[in-house]
């Protein structure tokens, strides 16, 4: 049985089916070890030891090869974007559009500060609204958006709830369901799409500077809005974590 398993391992190895080959090598080596322990023939024991050593060496080489391939794959599916202080040209469409493929139907937004409209220097509820508007313009066909954030403090909570409910109702008119959840311990800021892409922005959706005035360039068009310094990590995950 061990010989047949190892023969299969070699065939898979030669066909570059390394994951399957490694499994067969490991199973075959275990069977040879059992055979070696069961025999009292010293010549056979020596032959088993030689074969086990050879197959163990090859199995280790395959393990290293698989690790290197995984690292190469990771490097292809991870890139980092550095947004400099006062940089422009980083509106939501420019940042996310590449990853919003046609098969994206579900989005997870995790950001602890989707709060008051009038919060000092922050417009996070408006930012979230603009992010949702970007989703509606495709080419993806988003049906569900999951938002995980934290409650606003004090009197701001009722305004936060009212604004989020208005966004929820408005999205419903476009056939999109908004699920809202709250957590007091949330710290991470990340956005995930059900095609496997995850975008982690150091500042979350709030990487834009406050506009200088209601009629200043960049107030309406985020591509023209100066940014605050932050880092964006774009990662292709094998399984999208759900909240």
Automatic annotation (TrEMBL):
The record's listing under InterPro entries reads:
MIT_dom, MIT_dom_sf, MIT_domain_contain_protein1, MITD1_C, MITD1_C_sf, MITD1_N
The record ties this protein, via CDD domains, to: MIT_1, MIT_C
MIT domain location: 1-72
Superkingdom of the organism of origin: Eukaryota
PANTHER family cross-referenced by the UniProt entry: MIT DOMAIN-CONTAINING PROTEIN 1 (PTHR21222:SF1)
Designated name of the protein: MITD1 protein
Which organism is this protein's natural source? Calcarius ornatus
């Amino acid at each position: 049985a061990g010989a047949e398993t190892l023969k299969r391992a070699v065939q898979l190895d030669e066909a570059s089916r390394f994951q399957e080959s490694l499994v067969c090598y490991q199973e075959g080596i275990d069977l040879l070890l059992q055979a070696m322990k069961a025999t009292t023939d010293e010549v056979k024991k020596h032959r088993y030891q030689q074969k086990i050593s050879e197959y163990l060496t090859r199995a280790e080489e395959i393990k290293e090869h698989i690790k290197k391939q995984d690292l190469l794959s990771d490097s292809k599916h991870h890139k980092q974007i550095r947004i400099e202080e006062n940089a422009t040209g980083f509106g939501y469409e420019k940042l996310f559009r590449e990853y919003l493929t046609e098969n994206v139907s579900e989005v997870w937004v995790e950001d602890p500060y989707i709060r008051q409209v009038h919060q000092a220097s922050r417009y996070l509820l408006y930012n979230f609204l603009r992010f949702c508007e970007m989703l509606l313009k495709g080419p993806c066909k988003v049906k569900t958006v999951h938002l995980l954030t934290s409650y606003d403090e004090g009197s701001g909570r009722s305004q936060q709830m009212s604004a989020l409910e208005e966004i929820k109702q408005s999205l419903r008119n476009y056939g999109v369901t908004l699920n809202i959840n709250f957590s007091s311990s949330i710290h991470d800021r990340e956005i995930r799409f059900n095609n496997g892409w995850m975008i982690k922005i150091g500042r979350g959706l709030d990487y834009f500077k406050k506009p200088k005035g209601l009629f200043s360039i960049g107030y309406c068009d985020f591509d023209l809005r100066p940014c605050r310094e932050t880092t964006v990590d774009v990662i292709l995950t094998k399984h999208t974590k759900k909240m």
